[in-house]
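Lecture notes, unit on protein representations.

Consider one protein chain, 338 amino acids long.
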Amino acid sequence: MFRSVARSAAGKSLLRRGYATAVPERKVAVLGAAGGIGQPLALLMKLNPLVSQLALYDIANTPGVAADVSHINSRSEVAGYVGEEQLGKALEGCDVVIIPAGVPRKPGMTRDDLFNINAGIVKGLCSAIAKYCPNALVNMISNPVNSTVPIAAEVFKKAGTYDERKLFGVTTLDVVRAKTFYAGKAKVNVADVNVPVVGGHAGITILPLFSQATPKANLPEEDIKALTKRTQDGGTEVVEAKAGKGSATLSMAYAGAIFADACLKGLNGVPDVVECSFVQSTVTELPFFASKVRLGKNGVEEVLGLGPLSEYEKEGLESLKPELKSSIEKGIKFANQN
């Protein structure tokens, strides 16, 4: 189903970006829409002209968020859903489901500490996705992503709906941070910077490939090591700066919106859409791994290889594997035991 938008401001914007005069109807759901990430993410998705329906779901307070966002004069129609009894309606007909639901990280709390609470939340939401919109692209933000993505995969396998091309761990914030920090050190325009980030989405499992960064800056190795450490510790930096009163919500919402936009462009047939994401993979011996992924009408069209690595990056890759393997296995175990 298509809606002509050629005469509208949104339509003119889309035409400038190479779209036809009609844009597909796309429904996007945000699960956890009343939370610290969910609210700014809801705002950013409301501003996206590729979204025609925006479903906002949470266990409380969603009607107010939906009413607030719905007053914005952009294309999408907004509906708020609250409580488990309305989850199915929120999900029906979805093309993309974004999951920022869960408890936030607190001072001294590792991503692993979040595990039991957020793992249970993710399992319940994925069971509903399997039932109500099994063909949707699922964008997992809920931490720890290294474990919640394998949990989701197991839930979908048990339901008979698993498609490895349609499940993504959103690691875009690692890329956003790597770009920002690199641009500052290299003194280049951040809008021109690209840095692949591979591995996982926690601590040392985050491996930015600054040797492949563009534009090339030839930074000394001590700078590369410092940039790598800062990218890995970006979440802790924000938690500490907020003095225990919050975590990375605004930057995560921005990163989540960027990745969802890439998914929508892929679904709509825009060529050569490439983003880093934590997906089922054969790039390494691990069953899930973050690397560059080409997106298309079926979700993942191609998982791209790592490319040439520096010696420092090769060491980092080998160092991260045991921890990432453990996190993946923990997720699978949780899904199968609970």
